[in-house]
Amino acid sequence: MATASAPAGGACPDAGCGGRIAADGYCNTCGLEGGATQRSVGAATSTPIDSPIGVEPTIAAPVAPTTSRRLNPGAGAATRRTASTRTGGGALGAGLVTVMPTVAGDPAGAVMSEAEIAAVLGEKPEDERFCSACGQPVGRGDAGGPGRVTGFCSNCRTPFDFVTNMPALSAGELVGGQYEILGPIAHGGMGWIYLGRDRAVSNRWVVLKGLLNEDDADAVASAVAERQFLARIEHGSIVNIYNFVTWRGAGYIVMEFVGGQSLNSKLKKRRAANNGEFDPLPVTDAIAYMLGVLPALGYLHDQGLVYNDLKPANMMAVGDGVKLIDVGGVMAADDHSAAIFGTQGFQAPEVAELGPSIASDLYTVGRTLAVLTLTFVYHHGQWQHALPPVSEQPMFDRYESFHRFLLKATAMHPDDRFQTAAEMAEQLTGVLREIVALTTGAPQPTVSSRFSGDRLASRLVDDEATGGPDWRTLPTPSIAPTDPAAPFLNDLADDKPEVVLGAIKAAIRDGLVPDTQEVKFQAIAALAATGNDASDVLRAAAEADPWDWRLRWYRGILGLRIGKPAEAAEDFSAVWTELPGELAPKVAVGLAAELAGEFDRAAEVYAEVIAVDPSFVSAAFGLARCRSASGDRGGAVDAYGAVPESSAAYTEARVASARALVADQHGDPSVADIQKAAATIEAARLDAAAEAGLAAEVLEGALASVSSGQMAANPDVVVFGQPLTVDGLRSGLEDTYRRMARIATTASERFHYVDRANSVRVPSLF
Fold first, then answer.
1. Which among 14, 50, 216, 309 is annotated as catalytic?
2. Which pLDDT belongs to residue 20?
3. Domain 38-71+91-102+287-440: assigned CATH number
4. Residues 405, 406, 408, CA angle at the centre, nearest 5°?
5. Model pLDDT, residue 38
C-alpha cells in the first residue's frame, strides 16, 4: 500500500507524532516523514532519519565558527591527528546532577498498533531516494512524471526499492524455532524491528532487527558483519547482541530488549505536553546523558570500532542510566569497504569522502547534544553542519562554555574536534560543573589535569605581586607526565626563570634531556618571564605539533607581556574553545579583557570563574578591580569578600577591601563605609606597621570628608576608638602617626611621622 506525502500544513503521516508538515516539507515535530537510515559508500549520501525535532526554518546569518584553527592551513583535508583512545566516564551526571529515573513500562506495550503501522507504509519521498551503493540520486521524477519507486541505479546498476511494505513477521510466528514474535515496534534503516520472546532462554524479551531489502547486497553484508564481531562487544551502556538467525530467506539480528524511553521519545513527549511548542531537555540532563554514553563510545574506539549513527533515537534512558540501543551502524574504523550508516544532520561532513573515524563519532555527540538542548532546523539547510548564532539561542549567551564545547565538538575539520572520548568527557564534565555552579549558586571546584592552580596567592605571600593585573599570576599548563623530560622539568618548576632557562640550555647542550615539546614550552615560559624573545622557540614548537593548544596559550602570554592585550584575548579565547571545561583560559580571557579596558567583559568572565571555584583569587581581585574601574564601590568590596578565609590571599583581600571602601575614585565614602573599613582593618590581624598604615588612610579620608562638610560630624560614631568629629579624627591620626614613628626603621622615616603627628594634633592652650 502506498500513500502520498502529506502537503504543507497537513498532519504528519506518523500517527504517533502529532506534528504538522511545515513549509519546507518536513514535520515540525519528528523532523521527517518516515525517515530512513542512509548508507553511504564513498559519497555524500546521508539523508535524515528519525529526526527527533524539527522547527519552522528561521532566517539568520550563519554563525561564524570560533573553533581553534589549524596552524598549518595548507594541510590537506585528509590530514588526521593521532591521539590515544583511552576512554573515560562515570555515573550518569558525574555526581553533579540527579536525573529523574526513567521507568520501564510493559514491553508488550511497545508493539505498534495497526494505525501506527499504516502510517509507516508507503513510498519514500523522491528527495530521500539515493542509491545504497554509490549514493547517487535515484527514483527521481521529471517533466514526464513522477520517479520510479523500484528499479536500478543508472550509475552502478544496484537495484532499489523505496516502497515500505507490510511487516514480514506476524504475531505468534516462531522464528528459528526459538523466538516468538509479538509484533513490530519500529521501522528503521534496515527494515522492521520486532519484539519477541526467547522461548529457549527463560522467555526473556528480545528484539529482532530485519533487513529492509533482501536483495540489497550491502544490507546483507552489514548483517553478516554484525554477526561476526558485534557479539564480542560487552559494555553496560551498549545493547547486547544474542544471536543471528535466518528465516524464510531473510536475516535477523537478535538483541537485548531495552526498556525505558529513547531520548527522541522524551523530546516528543515534552513537546506534546507543551501544547506543541518545542521544549528541549534541561541542559544538565542532556549533558548527563551524553556523559553516560561517552564511555561506551570510548570502549568501541578501544576495540577499533566506530558507532557511526549516534542520535537521540538511538539512546535509551533506562532507570537511572542510558544505553545505546542500535548497533546497526557499528563497523571497524579501518574497514574502507563496508557500507556506512549515518543520519543527515548528525553525520560529520567528511564521512562520505574520508570514511568514519573517532573524530566523526564524537562529532555526532556534539550534534546530538545540540539537538537535545536547542531549537533549530538541523537536518537540512544552513544549520545542517553548523550551529545557530547566539542571537537565536539564549542558552549560548547564558552558558558560554557550553557554546564553545559544541563549537569544538562540531568543528568542520576533524582535526579541530575532540580526539578521544575521554578528552571529550573530561571537558564536558567541566562544562557541567560550571552550569551547575551558575544555576545553583553552589561552587563546584575540582583539580585540573591541564593547569596548575591559581598563582596570585603564592605570589602575594612571596611579595612578588601587588594584587594588580599581572600575567604572571595566571595558572601554568601542566607538564605531560609521559614526556621523557618530565622528571627533569618538574625538578625545575619552583626555580627562578633565569635558573630554569640556564638549566634547560645546559641540559640540552650536554645531552641530558631531549629537546621535547615540553622542554620547548618550559623554555618559552622562562623566556617570557625574563623578558626575552621567545618567538623562535614558539615557532619550533608549532612545527613539532601544530594542533597543541599551548601554542595559543603562550602566544597569549607573550602578547600580554609586550602590551597587546587585544591580540592576547583572541589567543586565550581560542584556548577556551579548545578546553571549554577548564577555568584557566577563562581567567586569562578576563585578564586580557581587563588590560584592554573591556571591564564589563572581564567582570563577567571573572564572576563566572569565582562562582565555580572561589579559590581562583586572581579572578576575585580582577573582578574587584573591574568594578572599581566602573565606580562600583559595593561591587568591588563584595568581590574581595569572595576570597575564602582559607586562602593565603585572604588578608590581602581584606586590606584591599578596606581601601576600596574609602577610595576617592568611588566618590566620598559614607559613614557606614568608614566604619566598615575600620572594622575590617581591626579584624584582619595585620602586623603593627601595616595596621597603622591602613588606619592612617581611613582616618585621613574621614577627616577630609568631615572637614569639607561632605560628611556630617557624629560624636556617637566611633572610628578606631575616636568619635567621628574633626577633633576626634585629629586625635586618632596623631596617635596613629606616633605609633608609626615608634616602629619606623630609619631616622628619616621616624622624623616624617613625628612631623605629621604634630601637624594634625588638636590645638590646645597648654
1. 309
2. 55
3. 1.10.510.10
4. 70
5. 39
